[in-house]
Amino acid sequence: MTEVLGLSELCRLYPNRWVAAKVLAREEEGGQPVRFEVVAAHSDMYSVRVNLEAGEHCILYTGNIPEEKFVLMY
């Protein structure tokens, strides 16, 4: 059985990690992802990217992004 998580659960279970997740549900109004299936989680963004296959996936960071550094999302 696959575990389906909301955003707050995802952040609690994978603190300060890059998480690759399959999007299972989106908000009706804004279209933002709200339910996920975790594909990979790691402290390094590039380590989670290699686990993605074709389909609707996103990469999230579950911690606070430091202000003195820049992060590029694509």
Structure description:
This protein has 74 residues and is α+β, with helices and mostly antiparallel strands. The chain has one domain (5-61). It has two helices and four strands; from the N terminus they run βαββαβ. It has a four-stranded antiparallel sheet with strand order 1-3-2-4. The longest helix is centred in the N-terminal third of the chain and has 7 residues, at 7-13. The radius of gyration is 12 Å and the shape is globular.
Q: Given the structure, what is the number of helices? A: 2
What is the 3D shape? globular
- Largest sheet: spatial strand order: 1-3-2-4
The biggest sheet amounts to: 4 strands, antiparallel
Number of domains: 1
Q: Which ranges are low-confidence, i.e. pLDDT below 50, for 5 or more consecutive residues?
A: none
Q: What is the average per-residue confidence, as pLDDT, rounded to a whole number?
A: 82
Count of beta strands: 4
Measured between the Cα atoms of the first and last residue, the distance is: 30 Å
Helicity level: 10-25%
Structural class: alpha+beta
Helix/strand order: EHEEHE
| CA-based gyration radius | 12 Å
Proportion of strand residues: 35-45%
Features:
74 residues, alpha+beta, four-stranded antiparallel beta sheet, 2 helices, 4 strands
Secondary-structure blueprint of this entry?
Elements: E1 5-6, H1 7-13, E2 18-26, E3 33-42, H2 45-49, E4 57-61
Antiparallel strand pairs: 1-3, 2-3, 2-4
